[in-house]
Hints:
Helix content is 56%, strand content 10%. With 530 residues, it is of the alpha+beta class. Strand 2 and strand 3 form a beta hairpin.
Amino acid sequence: xxxxxxxxxxxxxxxxxxxxxxxxxxxxxxxxxxxxxxxxxxxxxxxxxxxxxxxxxxxxxxxxxxxxxxxxxxxxxxxxxxxxxxxxxxxxxxxxxxxxxxxxxxxxxxxxxxxxxxxxxxxxxxxxxxxxxxxxxxxxxxxxxxxxxxxxxxxxxxxxxxxxxxxxxxxxxxxxxxxxxxxxxxxxxxxxxxxxxxxxxxxxxxxxxxxxxxxxxxxxxxxxxxxxxxxxxxxxxxxxxxxxxxxxxxxxxxxxxxxxxxxxxxxxxxxxxxxxxxxxxxxxxxxxxxxxxxxxxxxxxxxxxxxxxxxxxxxxxxxxxxxxxxxxxxxxxxxxxxxxxxxxxxxxxxxxxxxxxxxxxxxxxxxxxxxxxxxxxxxxxxxxxxxxxxxxxxxxxxxxxxxxxxxxxxxxxxxxxxxxxxxxxxxxxxxxxxxxxxxxxxxxxxxxxxxxxxxxxxxxxxxxxxxxxxxxxxxxxxxxxxxxxxxxxxxxxxxxxxxxxxxxxxxxxxxxxxxxxxxxxxxxxxxxxx
Length: 530
């Protein structure tokens, strides 16, 4: 009996091996050859010259946000935001969902192998013609099936059914589409990271500017209150007139209104920061540095517009969506061709249970099936037309994303030059206004000029200081915008950049022979958020 087992097993395994080999040796896909679109862009950013900063050799996208921002309070707020922000949680969940969809689609490349087994009992109404069957036995009336003859059959096996041999790459095209969508979601997460970091930094710099304005209002109000008290004292002694007193009171009231407005802005800035970080602002944060000390860098190299194609995650995401649309065209093309499916089994069957595990009870089967589309009434051609139209939409979306990125960088660089020049003018204006106010006070104290001149000089000096703060805020917010627009901010450290959590391996463009993803919600977030 045992001498027959090797021959039967070898035949069965050869048949199953051939069927599996046919499934694995799938043909090439029908995905169109991909050529990256070339949007109409200038070769350089207009009118921008970098300064002589020694760190300019390092591109923005290679500088981690912890290296770019040096203010410990700001770094703590960004860390909280990356941990608690709800938009990041949504983006991370979308990555996990895309990974699951990829896993489902990728599983279609392989047969779903399952094991089955069990007995079958059948009590026919008439036993005529079944008396010869070995499994047909006479039951007693007290048995579970009562009296009469019962047909018994035992079987067990392992195999797969309706496994499609991917001859024309339909399943591989769909798998490639799912992989590209997963990569697009991951790039969207990086883009969201950059956005959250820049929003927190921008709101933080605004908060610092409003705090400085509030401090300026407090100091100015205190000085003007002292001046008012002195003026009232002189008026009571007949040394000043009532007009001067009223003018001093006007200045005090204006400074009080400025202080109230500055307090409102500071509180609203704190509310915005709490919203961005997704949690209340902790009370034990490090003290903030002075405005202008949030980063050690004074400038960043713009590079070439073509560099944005590799640096900006939103452009990378748009390109992955375009590649997914390309893959969908391959699947739509493959639908015009025949589909070959296999059903294979290997097992045992017997009418008697004690004979199931003998050589005579072994069974195997191989059932190929060919489905040829003849009349689909326009369904396949309609799907192909829709896929091509979706590809055209993604091409236009990709080109618009690139053009938008170019404009953001160009606008930020143009504003950079303007803010640097405006900062110089604002600093000079503060110096001049301070000196004018000093001279006006000297003339008033000497009695050679009216208090109105001193009043106007003080007002001009206060406005110059406010403008200086406003320009400083705009200047550093512009630097943050450049850092974001050039693709910086999604890595944590320069020496240890975050690695993509989704990996797609391709042997040739348009034909993926081995594709794998390892995206998870925690991994995708932790690579950039510690």
